[in-house]
Amino acid sequence: MSSISTPPTTDSTSHITSYPRFIGRSLWLATEGSFGFYAWMTMLTALFLVGANAWAHQVAGGMISTHMTDHVSWGLYIANFTFMVGLAAGGVMMVIPAYLYHDRKMHDVVIIGELLAVSAIVMCLMFVVADLGRPDRFWHLIPGLGKFNFPISMLTWDVIVLNGYLVLNLHICGYLLYMRFLGRQPNPVWYVPFVMLSIVWAISIHTVTAFLYCGLGGRPFWNTALLAPRFLASAFVSGPSFIIVTMVLMKKLTSVQGLEQPIATLTKIIRVTILINLLMVASELFTEFYTGGTHVSSAKYLFFGLHGKTALVPWTWTAIGLNITAACLFLWPGLLSPKFRLLLVAACLMAFVGTWIEKGMGLIIPGFIPSTLHEVVEYVPSMLEWKVSVGVWAFGLMVFTIAIKAALPTLRQPAQSTDT
Amino acid sequence: MVRLANLLFAGVVCAVISMVIVTVTTSDRRAPSHSERAHPHSGLASATTGVLANPATFPIVIRKPAGPPQIKLAGTDPQGRSASVACATCHSVRPPNFDNQTAQSLDEFHQGLQFNHGQLSCYSCHNPENADELRLADGTAVEYADVMTLCTQCHSKQAESFAHGAHGGMNGFWDLSRGPQTKNNCIDCHDPHAPNYPKMIVDFKPRDRFLDLQRAEHDNHK
Amino acid sequence: MTTINERPEAGNRELPIVENFSRRAAVKGGFATLGAAAFVAAISPLRHAAQNTSAAEFLQKHYTELSDEQKADVIARLEAETKKNYGAEVTIGDDRPIPGTKFVYAINLSVCNGNGKCVEACHKENNHDRATHQSYIRIVEMPKGTLDMEQGSTTYTGVVPKDDKFYLPVQCQQCDEPPCVDVCPVKATWKEEDGIVVVDYNWCIGCRYCEAACPYHARRFNWKKPEVPADQVNPDQSYLSNRIRPVGVVEKCTYCLHRTRRGRLPACLEACPTGARVFGNILDEDSNIRWILDNKRVYILKEELGTKPAFFYYFD
Predict the structure, then answer these.
(1) What is the DSSP letter of B110?
(2) Interface test with B, best of A71, A99, A172, A189 (most B CBs within 10 A)
(3) Do B222 and A197 touch (CB under 8 A)?
(4) B167–chain A nearest CA distance, Å
């Protein structure tokens, strides 16, 4: 890497030299910050290290240290993975207004959504790796090197769409930030088509992830056509909620301007999606419980417990409570007023946590309970699983923080230079 | 610009289509190679098919009782040896008592015999003329070793199933061109006097680490 | 993936944007080094895991792509590893399907009394982990008058059969449309010509998607290294069947292919004291199994899922 002193002139250097310099400069800037920033990053690093250590123990000693079983063969990792795919897809809720409805204000800050997508996908991939019994054989999954069961296995589709989405967003963000670094106006030809593609792609990643589950005939709880739409609806709750919280924090901590209107837009989006999500959950439950029969066992377990086993019941009702409260709050027009910023954040957090439970633990685990031979074996994550999951979250937040920091210059309204 | 965008889109679509085509063709190409791969082994295997076409080379062995039963005596001689006697030891000198219809009326030697086999009486199956033989319903004498012939009189369904491997179990080879098969005899599993299959006690259960009992132990693993 | 962690701080040495650049760079470099060191320390348990995986195993190709020589090498390596890790002399065969066979199983539910001898035989035959009593067979105790497994129980004990129950042993059904094979992302499991669905334990990545997809609870995951005392190891092994499985991979019933492809009967059948189990080649018109299909009213489990099992149940 050559020295990076000033933003280079646009014509003199080739991209081969200037692009690494751009990355270097971005990283340098991204690691500059206040004491609070360093404290935050140190905490995340510490958590990540705890997770990395736990994962290393898991790999060394076998997955016996998780509480997963042959009955409940996927647990916290895959629950988080599913949620993360949603978070990644949720970022598109900024892209659609910005590019399809030409919302100027949203357009100015749309990169937040794209960076969220990048960080969330990184977390997805880490959760998948954490869930593998043989991470050393990960290369078997690489098309060309290993043996790729495409197009029969939905998991191979997921590998393609997730990595594709990652590359797409890296390209879009990288291009926009790079042009800004060069001091050039971004040429729409080099990113608008990709943005359009990324909208479709965002829908596809969550649809494919839903197909992972709903294509399994042996698991009646998942085997419903409503799963993909439900996934999308809840993704469009969790993604925008996370972005609103991020924006509120950015308003407090940085000098980025023009966040008010995007916050309002996203709030209005959640107002609709959270209701759609609840509606879908309700119609799913109606079908299950009104029809009855053995197919309802999982839902029964989830909501009321089965054969005296009730581990998930408090979780589910918490999720329902959080989701309904959040929905009521979002329906209240006053929530948009800056006076009630804290309430908005609270509503977003409730919606976020509610969705996390509902489509993480609340969807993955009951799929396995009762098992295919109708044995009721419960699952509660082990300490190690929590550590690994927290580690992945910490790493994802670290990526997100650094990415946002690197993007701050493009977000800042007319030439300000104060830092966090 | 719009045109360029369209071009890009077309490029992506083409890439996807070509990916699909490549996958399909490679999987097509792989399929025959699979069967080719099977051929080296089929050298050995085709020899086997040849054998398969031939009549079976190994027998189905049905275990047989060694002969007439011996009755163990309760007491031992002064050297501590136990002894057993053949049926004929007593029955050759005693006339058959056709009044003995149930186990309850046996008050001398056989008392306490558990009998639960329909409406049969002793001489439905035992030969009154020769205590070391059995007797069919039509009066034909049958060796103890051929007891299955006797059972089959009533239990033809089971006999049919047995003949087709669907009753009684077996050991050894399914493929008789490679080895013999051993099958049980009726009385290996069924006591002729009380033929109901005995109750059993389950002694081996999968002790999965994840059942509630195991949770504590498994947590200690960490 | 984890190396990304270091990148933010790693590439910063020559960035002279801020005033006292060199000091900041030094501080950042220091922290980056510290972070990297802490990370290496955190994942140090991996070194232990790496010792158990040889380079040859890491680079081993998929079973169907191994040449005969490579197979011989792999098998020699596996036998040596078993000797080293378990202290047992074993022979690992490479049993291929017998042309003209398709294996099918049937169980007479009127006869089965749930005694569990098959479960035990499977456990021993297939070198399952001793501590967990692992086995490919589970028996569901069902109330008479229903086929709804919801009302069944697998944890029954004591004297069997109970008067108002019947017993339903379930193991891999060797489906003709196996959902587990479809979902495997790396083709580590496939259906062979004689109908057996096998797993290449050295190719499986342990994602457990097949466990989620199987409607019969037929698949098992090796949550830890199986423990089998040397004198209890069944030395008669096969690559795709009962060789001792590595940790972190999925395994399943193979109809004892190390026996059945050599003409012998499966271990669970031989162990059954009631004679409820029938095994054979459905392509052979004179086989026992064909007689049952022709003469008994058979049914299959979860027919509505379209998995087309090669495993039949019947009542007399």
Answers:
(1) S
(2) A189
(3) no
(4) 27
Instruction: For residue C32, give its domain range.
Output: 2-43
pLDDT band at A415 (very low <50, low <70, confident <90, very high): very low
Task: For chain A, list the contacting chains (3+ Cβ pairs, <8 Å).
Answer: B, C
- Say how many CB pairs under 8 Å bridge A and C: 223
CA distances from C200 to A163, A336, C65, C245, C246 (A): 27, 58, 12, 10, 11
Options 2.160.20.10, 3.30.465.10, 1.20.1630.10, 1.10.3080.10; CATH of A19-411: 1.20.1630.10
Question: Is C137 in the same domain as C270?
Answer: yes
Same domain, C191 and C313: yes
Let me know whether C28 and C138 are in one domain: no
Tell me: do C154 and C289 sit in the same domain: yes
Of residues C110, C20, B180, B8, the one with CA closest to residue A191: B8
* Contacts A31 to C, Cβ<8 Å: 8-9, 12, 28
- Residues in chain B with CB shorter than 8 Å from the CB of C292 are 164, 166
- Rounded to whole angstroms, how far apart are CA atoms A192 and A171? 11
The 3 state secondary structure assigned to C163-181 is CCEEEEEECCCCCCCCHHH
Q: How far does the CA of residue B170 sit from the closest CA of chain C (Å)?
A: 6
Same domain, residue pair C105 and C22:
no
Residue A12 has pLDDT above 80, yes or no: no
Instruction: Note whether A28 contacts C15, CB cutoff 8 Å.
Output: yes
Residue C55 belongs to a domain: no
Contact C149 A57 (CB under 8 A): no
Domain at C263, CATH number: 3.30.70.20
Q: What is the DSSP letter of B199?
A: P
Task: Give the Cα separation of A165 and A185 in Å (integer).
Answer: 24
Are the C-beta atoms of A276 and A93 separated by less than 8 Å? no
CB-CB neighbors (< 8 A) of C226 in chain B: none
C80 belongs to a structural domain: no
Does residue C281 sit within a domain?
yes
* Number of structural domains in chain C: 2
- Give the side-chain half-sphere CA count within 13 A for A26: 28
Both tokens of residue A102? Answer: 């030409």
- Judged against a pLDDT cut of 80, whether residue B28 lies above it is answered with no
**Partners of residue A32 in chain C, C-beta under 8 Å:** 18, 24
Q: How long a stretch of residues is chain A?
A: 420
3-state secondary structure C237-259: EECCCCCCCCCCCEEECCCCHHH
Same domain, C34 and C177: no
Percent of chain B topping pLDDT 70: 70
Omega cis (within 30) before A370: yes
C97 touches chain B (CB under 8 A): yes
Q: Give the whole-angstrom CA distance, residue B168 versus residue C267.
A: 16
Distance CA(C182)–CA(A327), nearest Å, equals 40
Closest CB to B204: pick one of C133, C156, C277.
Answer: C133
The Cβ of residue A131 has, within 10 Å, a number of other Cβ atoms equal to 26
Chain A residues touching C24 at Cβ < 8 A = 32
DSSP-derived 3-state class of residue C312: strand
Cis before C215 (ω within 30): no
Pair of tokens at residue B180: 């013999």
The answer to whether residues C37 and C114 belong to one domain is no
For residues A303 and A369, what is the distance between their CA atoms, to the nearest angstrom? Answer: 12
**Extended beta strands in C33-164, E state:** 91-93, 103-108, 138-143, 158-160
Question: Can you give the pTM of this predicted structure?
Answer: 0.87
**Confidence at residue A418, expressed as pLDDT on a 0 to 100 scale:** 38
Distance in angstroms (rounded) separating the CA atoms of residues A254 and A245: 14
Could you tell me if residue C109 is inside a domain? Answer: yes
Task: Specify the range with the lowest mean pLDDT, choosing from A343-357, B91-105, C128-142.
Answer: B91-105
Domain boundaries, given as residue ranges, for chain A? 19-411
